[in-house]
Design goal:
The chain is an alpha+beta fold. It contains eleven helices and twelve strands. Strand 10, helix 9 and strand 11 form a beta-alpha-beta unit.
């Protein structure tokens, strides 16, 4: 049986695999099963570690990189009951096994889930790490506590918005995408993903009971803001948000966050805002009472030509 088929069976039975690493998600974002594969390590017929990867060819280079609209990939390690020192030794062995199975490539780049805190085995094999951040509400079991953690400005926006906004679930993929494209054009920006890609994700997410759209309309039918949220057993993720700049001051975006948290709180444990390194976005996430979580961006450049390119970029930045 191929690694991919073994992995599909694992995804069907193992609830701790994050949504971004699940086979159905990878099929959708990689435009079919031919563009992704998985390294895995078994022991006695039991899968102990996995790491899916997306294969992309560009300008003659082979890249193992992050699929579009995919927050994290990285290794999944079966939980161990061993003492800390022994567990770290097990992780080293398993990660070495994963690295050995990666195909030859010119560039490797992945964001890892913040729950993976040990990347040393990859460092020992020549990989590099950059720390990035996301923001997470860690416990959705007590919604009163969650909402009391919102800063005053967010609660004020919600009260204002409640008077004029109707919440609508399940707007279509076309409606969501077209609105996002339109609101970005108003801000002289272009949408970064195709409608075909979003339709695949939307369809797969709904089929696997792991995605919803939620939208905020006023009484005149104007769409103020919308969210596309996905989830697994551990966390929900604010994957895409769209806000019409003409209605930004009406508070609908804050109201949508509150309502989607209510919705996912009976389906999962946490809410991940999908961190941003943009200063103003980071500030907004903090104001919802979310906790900062560091996660790893892991990379390795094997191509000499790409290493020279990166070195030149660094020189230009420092000039």
């Amino acid at each position: 049986m191929s690694n991919k088929n073994i992995y599909r069976e694992l995804c069907a039975t193992e609830s701790t695999i994050p949504v971004f690493s699940r086979d159905w998600w990878l099929d959708a974002v990689c435009d079919g099963a031919d563009n992704w594969d998985v390294a895995l390590v078994e022991n006695g017929g039991e899968v102990m570690a996995t790491m899916p990867y997306y294969v992309k060819h560009k300008y003659g280079f082979t890249l193992l990189t992050q699929p579009p609209l995919t927050q994290t990939l990285g290794p999944w390690i079966r939980p161990s009951s061993a003492k800390h020192a022994k567990a770290l030794g097990q992780q080293k062995h398993l990660m070495y096994g994963l690295i050995e199975q990666l195909p030859k490539c010119d560039l490797f780049m992945q964001n890892w889930h913040y729950s993976i805190t040990n990347w040393l085995p990859f460092y020992w094999k020549g990989f590099s790490q950059t720390t990035r951040y996301t923001y997470v509400i860690e416990d959705l079991s007590d919604l009163d506590k969650v909402f009391s953690g919102f800063e005053h400005s967010k609660r004020k926006n919600i009260k204002k918005s409640e008077k004029i906004i109707n919440i609508v679930f399940d707007i279509t993929a076309d409606q969501f995408y077209d609105n996002h494209q339109m609101t970005l054009l108003k801000q002289n920006s272009k949408i970064s993903y195709s409608k075909d890609l979003f339709k695949r994700i939307y369809k797969a997410g709904y089929q696997n009971d792991s995605a919803r759209t939620i939208a905020a309309y006023d009484q005149y039918g104007n769409l103020h803001a919308a969210l596309f949220v996905i989830w697994d057993n551990q966390s929900a993720y604010d994957l895409i948000s769209t806000i019409d700049p003409d209605y930004r001051n009406y508070g609908a975006a804050s109201l949508l966050i509150r309502e989607i948290i209510k919705f996912v709180s009976v389906r999962t444990n946490k809410f991940d805002f999908e961190g941003s390194m943009i200063e103003q976005v980071e500030r907004s996430f903090r104001q919802f009472g979310a906790i900062q979580k560091p996660y790893f961006f892991i990379s390795k450049t094997s191509s000499r030509l790409l290493r020279v390119r990166d070195a030149m970029k660094q020189i230009v930045r420092q000039a």
